[in-house]
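Researcher: Going back to the complex we discussed earlier. I've cleaned up the inputs and rechecked each line, so this should be the final set. Can you rerun the prediction on the complete assembly and write out the structure?
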Amino acid sequence: MTGPKNNQLSIQEVEKVAKLARLKLDEIELELYTGQLSSILEHIARLEKLDIEGVEPMAHPIPLNNRLDEDVPGDPMPVDALLDNAPEVVEQFISVPKVLGGDS
Amino acid sequence: MTSRDFRSCLEIRDEIRAGRISAESIMRETLERIRVFNPETNAFRETFDDEAMDAARNIDERLARGEDPGPLAGVPVGIKDNIATTEGTTTCGSKMLEGYRSPYEATVVTRLREAGAIPVGRTNCDEFAMGSSSETCAHGPVRNPWNTDRVPGGSSGGSSAAVSAGLVPATLGSDTGGSIRQPAALCGCVGLKPTYGRVSRYGLVAFGSSLDQIGPFTRTVQDAAIILDVISGVDERDSTSAPQPAADVTLGGSLPEGLRVGIPRQYREPGANEPAVERDVERAIELLRDAGAEIVDIDLPLTETGLSTYYVIAPAEASSNLARYDGIRYGHRSSEPSGSVDELYARSRSEGFGPEVQRRIMLGTYVLSSGYYDAYYLRALKVRRLIKSEFDEAFESCDVLLGPTSPSTAFELGGKPDPMAMYLCDIYTVNNNMAGICGISIPSGTDEEKRGLPIGLHLQAQAFDEKTLLQVADALERMIGFDCSSVDD
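Model: Rerun complete. Updated structure for the full complex:
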């Protein structure tokens, strides 16, 4: 498994990535990011040269196991303060466009 | 007439504790100083005037009652814009979080308060801590106090500029790939990046969760040691905080017995560093050798590859962490009419995030996407293991590593328009985060012949060996005798 050909992304690929990342880009932005991301991938491509046979992946710098807390109720966050940060509130609810039946 | 103040945290604390000056008057002067001098650098975005004055008066009252308010009694501290405080707003230098008021505060802030320190305001940074120049900040770029045409480094550039400009004796920053050490180097102050797990990240806005760490900016190594002691330790709210006991902060100014200082060959490749930077590293080696340290040649062949590894892992983690900004519960929501929730997400995110953040989100999404996960992300995680092993091996033959923090002194605003050129600034710092060890940058001098800009030396030690790291940094600092107040000349 390797990266894209010569590490050059196509505009269509960047469009797809933007969609996955929930970003809305115009044509100028798409072109700009396609060039910049390709040049970054070119740099990243040097990873291919390393021998990683048999090396265990390392996701985290210190070996950690799941740490369990005592099941003790704490103070909840203040609802008013949380709602104060919401962009659109109706009574005690956060308002959003319809979730089902959209053109997603 | 207000003037800059270059005293250390300890000097200020001792004055207050001895009753020679009140915490209230220190705080009033600090707020006035920020008001007068901040426009030069844009180091602070906002100050917490009322809360800070109240806290200062409270310190004075406790002293009057004969209580000890703690090891940082009355010391004003600036807080990076990605560390939650209940005062003011926490915006991460982003339009996305404009006006966001945190309902809770970071553990580090609580611990500072408990030690008598007073959060005085919010320091600017690169948007979501992504950058090496503090130019991606939505509230305008931060400028270097030594030369305001130059960047302060990043991403914690407001935190380094605030200390170096003589506004506050200490600030907090965060370091994911060099964001404490590189701005400390470019601004001529001390910047400590503790071991991964040493300091709780509860309340730090997540960027790269396996890399992020909070640490202090100060004018002396001793101050950094005291702040580390205050903020470190296990926290039930951060399951990655380590149970190790705090580092011993007693610093005597002398090198540890039998110290071995490793000099990685890859940190000094011919032509890689500016001549003045190279000269300062050479001088530091001489000073350490004269003081009795053994100098050891070290090989870290993955130094440059580390950058490629980092720019897979950090964006991958960022793309996942930043998925929470969707314009629903908090943060920027697009006012354009959206027919669906998906459309609202995309519009809000594209309006709220700046270009660097969008670039990294896309890079991270790409390396994690089906078909490329193995080629990029999994491969990078394996190389990360090799990087860790490389450090482990190095620390078998030395106690600390020494090199430059940054290959160059501060560059001009707008001087690195190409993202990849900007990423190269972190060449000597990113592997430290990937291995989860500790590091510090201390000022060593200025590139006097050229521009009078400060230079930083980078010391690194094994995970949880801040004691050795700080002892060596403290001794070297005394040998060098850098005058941080010369910023004002």
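Model: Worth noting: The two ends of chain B are 18 Å apart (CA to CA).
Researcher: Good, that matches what I expected from the previous run.
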